[in-house]
Amino acid sequence: MSHLSERLAQLKSENRAAFIAYLPAGFPTVEKSKAAIEVLVKNGADIIEIGFPYSDPIMDGPIIQEAADIALANGAGAKEVLEILEFTTNLNVPAVVMTYWNPIEQYGISKFADAIKSANGSGVITPDLSLEEANPWINESNRAGIDNIFVAAPSSLPERLNHVASACSGFVYAASLMGVTGTRTSVSSSAKDLVARIRESVQTPVCVGLGVSTPEQAKEVASYADGVIVGSALIKILLEQPDFETGLKELATLTKSLADGIRQAR
Amino acid sequence: MSTTTDLTGGKPDVSVGHFGEYGGRFVPEALVAALDELAQMHAQTQTDPTFIAELDELHRTYSGRPSIITEAKRFACYAGGARIILKREDLNHTGSHKINNVLGQALLTKRMGKSRVIAETGAGQHGVATATAAALMGLDCVVYMGEEDTKRQSLNVARMKLLGAEVVPVTSGSRTLKDAINEAMRDWVTNVADTHYILGTVAGPHPFPTMVRDFHRIIGDEARAQVIELTGKLPDAVLACVGGGSNAIGIFYPFIQDTSVRLIGLEAGGDGIETGRHASAISGGRPGVLHGARSYMLQDKDGQTRESHSISAGLDYPGVGPEHAYLHDIGRAEYRPITDKEAMEAFSLLSRTEGIIPAIETAHALAGAMKVGNELGPKATLLINLSGRGDKDVETAANYFENLKM
Ligand SMILES: Cc1ncc(COP(=O)(O)O)c(C=O)c1O
């Protein structure tokens, strides 16, 4: 069982949802992203999701695009992603990498799975790896002993949803809405429905992402999902603050209130 | 029924649209249901007499098909004396081949009961064609265009607006075609319930490469018969410029089984492949996944897409359609780079020798014809896809040739 699965099982036994926090690796720089991850972990994030910055992130809104551009301009690549992954797992927190497919293919599918494993990563989220193309990756991640996490969407028809959910290990990533990442004023009602539909086909934990940005929204999602994924709202704070130190303070405050919201949900 | 190119005896995989190891589908799950619906609709309508008649009527009475062929005798003197035959897609309504695909997809949009279309555009030709079809069929239309390209092709921006479309300048990334496609994909993921994405070339996830090819093969079907009628035989080579590759696959496809006919795609070589500033995905890139499909592309060691460079907005794209990648690998088609300079020379040469101002995209094919004609000599017959007209490029040309004088 991966560290990720252990943590999700443990939180389930405590009757609360996991707080999964996302940051792109190397944003704004390698050292600063390590500092930001420490802040997330200290203030109540249960699981860290590390983004592999990518030039053409079609599932991401303007906030994550901007952060990825900054990380890329500062030289973030596979080496930096793996370095930050190892740094994170050394904090004794489960961590997964979220990446578009081409960086995996160019690194080498088998080599990438091994590299995630040797950095003690629990698994990889692949938002644009359609099931039809996923077999080579599923085989390699199984061999390496890491989880493969696919994204399920509200538009998935029942049979398809069953296939996507069944292909996941660790957790199933339920996209709360039809759209890209970003902050939203409310969480779409399709999220709760999607979680229920996924649970009809699998026992795997279901975590909800896309658009969750406030403690109130996190609390709402945490009432029914096994995990709440927050990304853009955290990054936005770092982008908006004039200096990084202030950004980290603000990040600590938001992280803590999101964690509190999630803990009060049930 | 649509099938992928099948020359190797491998079983064509209709469901996920592979061309050898290329093509396929690498997209957010949210788009899969819509792509499945589209693939099914396309497959169905390929043999539906009502759909075929509707599209045929639009071709004849709206865009002006069949397009003629023109023999370019004066231009031929600069192409080794080879016989040069131009397939005149520039004479279609809206001025390029793009309308063939757009009319087909717009009809599919109506069949799917969707009321809004979106498109990406580089040169603006695909955007203009989409805005035109949307006006004709009463669909809402939003066109994404890199900010850089809105400047290079300002005439087409005005045309799209006149036609009632909203033009959204894209300011992310390199601000060109690649980023316009990203932005259109994001719109589509969000609005897929009522929106169809009219992708303008043979790239993207299945079924786009197959579907867009099927809507453009009319170019090759007509040209093959026209050339045989004129010359009594097949041409020795068929040439076309390659951005995403739609005009090229459209004219190549009906010749694929004619193994005596060389198929030659001309990619944008920019300042020259050796400078790194080019847009030649096949000649200067390697396989990877971009915009939902595996194909050749420009990328760094980590798989980050590299920016392309070309004087031609319509060829300024770091990827290429997966069927071209496949035709290249199996040796059925050849791909060569043409520099900005070579293209601009051919641009002015065709204008002066034939009274036809080609699009700068198309000028790459003409420059290729000059080289291939010189290689093959006066006995050869070359068929060239004249994919578009150059009105939109007059400003770029004026700047270019003025700079040369200084
Ligand atoms: C006239 C013309 N030819 C060619 C192209 C390149 O596209 P494709 O390679 O898909 O034919 C364009 C694109 O804008 C164009 O306008």
From TrEMBL, chain A:
Cellular component aspect of the GO annotation: cytosol
InterPro entries, per the entry: Aldolase_TIM, RibuloseP-bd_barrel, Trp_synthase_alpha_AS, Trp_synthase_suA
Pfam family, one: Trp_syntA
E.C. code: 4.2.1.20
This protein's UniProt keywords: Amino-acid biosynthesis, Aromatic amino acid biosynthesis, Lyase, Tryptophan biosynthesis
Pathway recorded for this protein: Amino-acid biosynthesis; L-tryptophan biosynthesis; L-tryptophan from chorismate: step 5/5
Keyword Chaperone appears in the UniProt entry: no
MF-aspect GO terms: tryptophan synthase activity
Catalytic activity: (1S,2R)-1-C-(indol-3-yl)glycerol 3-phosphate + L-serine = D-glyceraldehyde 3-phosphate + L-tryptophan + H2O
Free-text function comment from the UniProt entry: The alpha subunit is responsible for the aldol cleavage of indoleglycerol phosphate to indole and glyceraldehyde 3-phosphate.
Subunit structure: Tetramer of two alpha and two beta chains.
Protein name as it appears in the record: tryptophan synthase
From TrEMBL, chain B:
Pathway in which the depicted protein is active: Amino-acid biosynthesis; L-tryptophan biosynthesis; L-tryptophan from chorismate: step 5/5
Keywords, sorted A to Z: Amino-acid biosynthesis, Aromatic amino acid biosynthesis, Lyase, Pyridoxal phosphate, Tryptophan biosynthesis
Catalytic activity: (1S,2R)-1-C-(indol-3-yl)glycerol 3-phosphate + L-serine = D-glyceraldehyde 3-phosphate + L-tryptophan + H2O
Annotated InterPro entries: Trp_synth_b_CS, Trp_synth_beta, Trp_synth_beta/beta-like, TrpB-like_PALP, TrpB-like_PALP_sf
SUPFAM superfamilies the record matches: Tryptophan synthase beta subunit-like PLP-dependent enzymes (SSF53686)
GO molecular function: tryptophan synthase activity
Record-annotated membrane-spanning stretches: none
Domain Tryptophan synthase beta chain-like PALP: 68-388
Cofactor: pyridoxal 5'-phosphate
GO cellular component: cytoplasm
E.C. numbers: 4.2.1.20
Entry-linked Pfam families: PALP
Name by which UniProt lists this protein: tryptophan synthase
Source lineage: unclassified sequences, metagenomes, ecological metagenomes
